[in-house]
Amino acid sequence: MPTPSKTFRPATLLVHGGTMRSNFGETSEALFLSSGFVYDSAEQAEATFLGEVEHFQYSRFGNPTVQMLESRLAMLEGAEACRATATGMAAVSSTMLSHLKAGDRVVAARALFGSCHWIVSTLLPRYGIETVFVDGGDREAWKTALATPTQLVLLESPSNPMLDIVDLQMVADLAHAAGAIVVVDNVFATPLLQHPLKLGADVVVYSCTKHIDGQGRVLGGAVLGSKKWIEEVLQPFTRNTGPAISPFNAWLLLKGLETLALRVDASCRAAEQVARFLESRPEVVRAWYPTLESHPQRALAMQQMSAGGTLVTFDLGSKAAAFRFLNALSLVAISNNLGDSKSLITHPATTTHMRVGAEERARLGITDGAVRLSVGLEDPADLIEDLGQALDAIGLRAAAE
Fold this sequence. Notes:
- The protein is α/β, with parallel strands linked by helices and 401 residues long.
- Helices cover 42% and strands 13% of the residues.
- Strand 2 (105-109), helix 5 (114-126) and strand 3 (130-134) form a beta-alpha-beta unit.
């Protein structure tokens, strides 16, 4: 089947983009569970390894099912090329390690997912790479950090878990002047709500485990950027180090993409309702959601994003109150995953951001009372009822004490 034109709108690309049909004419994308591929002749094998002909060699290098996922994601993102990886962290680590060498310099927004923070703070310095953290919303801090030649900038916006917003175009302009590429983790915004490449970013990374799968089934990641950078920088690294995605996982992610627009739209609408409810409750010290009037970067968020996303963060004042609240929930499940069709909630200070340390959590605004809620596809009224009765439980406990 010919690849659909990029002029198709996102909802259409999510269903048809990158589809390749075999001679059997299957409707659903075919699942090619094969580690290797055969050649018509020894000459064809040699020409394939020389890069003179296009032919699948080995599923660590490329696979028809994986290629369909990569093509669909590239069309959706508006990128020239994409490479899928086994996990979201494989996408982040491969992006950084393929581009950097000893003596290079990295500037990163301080608000990063725990594992990303570990790579920048702990792993890269082991390899002789200088790393600098800045507060993502501080323009002067970015200007100061990027006054020195730099090779790579890493950030996420909105950030995990406090939903900080970074001015992507501002950072990209400063980073490019310093000689750096800009890598944006766009997982909270999804490919539908924010387009970092249009705002100056060079590389976009995803944990496909989250919204793209959206049903808690498989792990996966993706790296998107220019054809030249993907093929000349990233691809030699991933082919030789092996963070390859399973064709089965890629097939499930293709199925997840078909409903991504519907799921994200529904979850965004529900998340805003939930956020406004939480903000109204006296037990909640503060709620964060990009479209709330109380969010300090609301204007920037709405400039860069088409909706507020599926995550809501709120502070219940203490770890004890947060734990009582979590344990009182009956519909919302405690889990550190996000972007699922089921609503999931976690306490970042004791889960996703435990290992960044108390001092760094304080700098990030991750209090012991902070809770991160990933809003799923349940009826918003049911979610609000469940959240409400759990908040009531906190109030009753406090009154009894």
